[in-house]
Amino acid sequence: MYPFKIGVMLDSFRLPIDQALAKAEEVGGQGLQVYATYGEMAPENLSAKARKEFLNKVKSHGLVISALCGDLGKGFTNPELNPELIEKSKRILDLAVELETNVVTTHIGRVPDDPADEVYKIMQGACHELAEYADSLKAHFAIETGPEPAARLRAFLDTLGSRGVAVNYDPANLTMCVDDDAVAGVYELKNYIVHTHAKDGLRGTKPPYVEVPLGQGDVKWDGYLKALHDVGFKGFLTIERECGETPEKDIAMAVEFLKGKIA
């Protein structure tokens, strides 16, 4: 039996928060991830009272928060935008800690092939600042895999000298977007993985990428889960369903699929 916990992405239900919380419990989730970049869950829109009320609602359904999603949709490749994006990211991490999680997932943009590339250096500078702030809170900004091969991401992370910026491992993104070996990538990034997305997709290197329900794509789940166990990961497999007409059904099927794999 693997020591993983099953999470669900609250926003994947495409329902108001109270209804989505009920569905997360109903399908058998143990935790949940929540978008905190817009709307009522953004830090600037959530008062201290509202934060406590939301956390109490989560607990009333027998759930915990596995991570917040802090992807602001712009990456950290533009030095003119970065100061504002970094400050917003810090506020999302503050919110995460208040909601009793220490992980904020994000996208930083595609890491260039060449470390001498000016964009590489810009991203490095932003991530140094984010890592320093995360370290001060004993937390992590977790970069989602997919824009580049796992080996290139690891090399970039190694330059930061910190796990304040870590990895949210998404095997489907590596499979769909860069045609990378998602199993081998776990061993490549073993020291950095703090959260994962449970998603499946069809192998390919050009959009449109084809996401499919768990077990129906090209992710090698048996090897992938063994690899996570081998590197000592004990955290969440958080189900993310970004497309499809029946998200609740797909999420429920994914929970059962994972339960069968980790039991």
What would you note in describing this structure?
The protein is of the alpha/beta class and 263 residues long. It has a single domain (5-262), classed as Divalent-metal-dependent TIM barrel enzymes (TIM Barrel, Alpha-Beta Barrel), CATH 3.20.20.150. It has helices at 17-26, 48-60, 82-98, 118-136, 150-158, 171-177, 182-188, 221-230, 247-262; strands spanning 5-9, 31-35, 64-69, 103-106, 140-144, 165-169, 193-198, 200-201, 211-212, 236-239. The strands form two sheets. An eight-stranded parallel β-barrel has the order 1-2-3-4-5-6-7-10, surrounded by four helices. It has a two-stranded antiparallel ribbon with strand order 8-9. The relative contact order is 0.15.
- Rg, rounded, reads 17 Å
Largest sheet: 8 strands, parallel, barrel
The CATH architecture name reads Alpha-Beta Barrel
Note the total helix count.
Answer: 9
Could you say which overall geometry the principal axes of the C-alpha atoms support? globular
The helix content, as a percent range, equals: 40-55%
SSE pattern: EHEHEHEHEHEHHEEEHEH
State the CATH topology: TIM Barrel
Reading side by side through the largest sheet, how are the strands ordered?
1-2-3-4-5-6-7-10
Average pLDDT rating:
96
The count of strands amounts to: 10
Task: Give start-end ranges of low-pLDDT stretches.
Answer: none
Approximately what portion of the residues adopt beta-strand conformation? 15-25%
Question: By CATH's scheme, which homologous superfamily applies?
Answer: Divalent-metal-dependent TIM barrel enzymes
List the helices and strands and how they pair.
Blueprint: E1 5-9, H1 17-26, E2 31-35, H2 48-60, E3 64-69, H3 82-98, E4 103-106, H4 118-136, E5 140-144, H5 150-158, E6 165-169, H6 171-177, H7 182-188, E7 193-198, E8 200-201, E9 211-212, H8 221-230, E10 236-239, H9 247-262
Parallel strand pairs: 1-2, 1-10, 2-3, 3-4, 4-5, 5-6, 6-7, 7-10
Antiparallel strand pairs: 8-9
Helix pairs in contact: 3-4, 7-8
